[in-house]
RidA family protein (Idiomarina rhizosphaerae), 130 residues
Amino acid sequence: MSKVIISTDKAPAAIGTYSQAVKIGTTVYLSGQIPLVPESMELVSEDFTAQAEQVFKNLTAVCEASGGELQDMIKVQIYLTDLGQFAIVNEVMAKHFREPYPARAAIGVKQLPKGAQIEIDGIMELPSTY
């Protein structure tokens, strides 16, 4: 199987040496998304909830560009500069996912790119084409 590079202008452009996502067969590996507005490449807001919503909007765009949807994600890793925001992450995530939920890890970090308060990456499994 060869890898397919996924790119969409509906999510922030890569700001380093990585792709927005890489697809191998029916598995898609999504790079971390921070709360940048794609058109301006600036943080959506300093408000944590607005940042979390923008991250899910960006992830949705990459999932769709990959041929799937956010609900196809099977694993997400959430990086937070303040683990005290965990309850808000749960609220926002519940608006974007329905059961069965993906596997998840929440990790406290000291700092994220561009001063973001949240970053999410993950793995998506596309429905089989067999």
Observations:
- DSSP finds two helices and eight strands in the chain.
- Strands lie at 3-6, 21-24, 27-33, 36-37, 42-43, 73-80, 103-108, 118-125.
- Residues 15 and 32 are 11 Å apart (CA to CA).
- The helical segments are 48-65, 86-96.
